[in-house]
C-alpha cells in the first residue's frame, strides 16, 4: 500500500497521469517493487479508494458511445494544434503540438515566443518532416495560421506542405472534437508543465523535450492497448507522402470553398437583415464573400514591380528573374516563394506609403513592409521612412486612394 501511494504522489508531483493504470505500469517497470509482484489495476484502485487517495471526478460519457476517428497506418495523418501558455515570468508564449494520428507519436511539439502564426507553424512542420518524413495529410483547425483553404485562400503553410506531397485538411468549423487527440494531449502537457512552471522560453523548450521523451517512450496509452506511442510507431505500417501535390489542387479546393460560401450567402431564403430585440439593425458580417486575389507573378530585371489595385510597387534587385505566388487578402499583400513556401515580401492592408509618385510606390516607403534578403540601399531607405512613420503618429498619412488630410 505504501509503495502504491508513494508512486502516485511522485507521478502527481512530476505532472504525469497518476490513475491506477499509470501507477500499475510505473510499478511494473520498477524491478525493486516490494514482493516482486505488482497488484492489478483493479486492486490498486481499491487500495487507493480505501485510504482516500482518489480524486473525485464528474460522471463521464461512456466510451462505447464514441465513434473513434483513427487512421490505420502511421504517417497517414498528423494532427497540428497550438495553445497559449503563460510562463512563470508572466510572458505568454505559444506551444505547437504535432501528433501522428494512428500511433499518437509526438513528431515535433515545440514552443515559440510569438502568438500563433504561419511562420512558426511552418517551422514546426518543416523540422518534423526533416526528422520523420512527410505524412499524407495534416489535419488542423481553421486558424489562418494553419489552413486558409476554407477561407478561400492559400497560405504559406499549405504551399509548403503541398511541396512535400502532404495535403492540408481542416476540421469542420466549430467542431474541435475533430482534433480530439490533440485537445486531449494538451491536458497532459499542461499538467506536466504546471508541475514545474518554466520561467523562460528556453526552460519551456527543455521541459517540452522531456515531455516528448516520456510521452513517446515511457507512458502507456490506453487507446493503443497500453503500448507506448514509440512502440506503436515502430510496429505500424508507414504510409508517407510520395510526390509533391500540384498547386492547382490547392487552388481547386480553395475555389470550391469560395463557391460554396457564395452560394450560402446568396440563398434567397436567408433574411437580408438581422434585427435585435430593441429593433436595432445589426451589421451582417457575411454580407460579402471574403475572396482573395491569387496568382503567379514573374519579376524580371526590366520590370521589378508587382501590382496592387493599379499601383506599381517596386521590389529590390534581389527579386529579379524570379517567380512568386501572390496572395491579396482582406488585411495583407503577400509574395511567397512557390518552392519553399517562405513569405518573402509583405505589407498590411490598407496600404500606407509616404513615397507615391502617381501610380508608382517605392516598396521601402510602405508602412509595415517586410522583405527577406533586402539590398543595403533598400534597408537604409526603409529605415528612413519607418522613422518618419514613427514621427507622424500624431498626424498619420492618408491611405492610398484617399485624399491627403
Give a quick rundown of the structure.
The chain has 405 residues and is an alpha+beta fold. The protein has helices at 2-14, 20-28, 41-50, 118-132, 156-163, 180-195, 201-217, 229-235, 247-265, 376-391; strands at residues 77-86, 92-100, 110-112, 137-140, 167-170, 274-275, 281-282, 293-299, 305-308, 311-314, 322-328, 332-336, 343-348, 356-357, 360-361, 370-371.
Question: What can you tell me about this protein's structure?
Answer:
Strand 14 and strand 15 form a beta hairpin. The strands form four sheets. A five-stranded mixed beta sheet has the order 3-2-1-4-5, with helices on both faces. With 405 residues, it is an alpha+beta fold. It is elongated and about 85 Å long. 31% of the residues are buried. It folds into three domains: 56 residues, no CATH class; 159 residues, Nucleotidyltransferase, domain 5 (2-Layer Sandwich); 99 residues, no CATH class. The longest helix is centred in the middle third of the chain and has 19 residues. Helices cover 32% and strands 18% of the residues. The termini are far apart. The protein contains ten helices and 16 strands.
Query: Span between N and C termini?
Result: 80 Å
The SS-based structural class is alpha+beta
CATH class of the largest domain: Alpha Beta
Give the SSE string: HHHEEEHEHEHHHHEEEEEEEEEEEH
Shape: elongated
Count of helices? 10
Tally of structural domains: 3
The main pleated sheet reads as:
5 strands, mixed
The CATH superfamily of the largest domain turns out to be Ribonuclease H-like superfamily/Ribonuclease H
Number of strands: 16
Radius of gyration: 26 Å
Protein name: Transposase InsO and inactivated derivatives
Domain Integrase catalytic: 64-237
InterPro entries: Integrase_cat-core, RNaseH-like_sf, RNaseH_sf
Organism: Cryobacterium levicorallinum
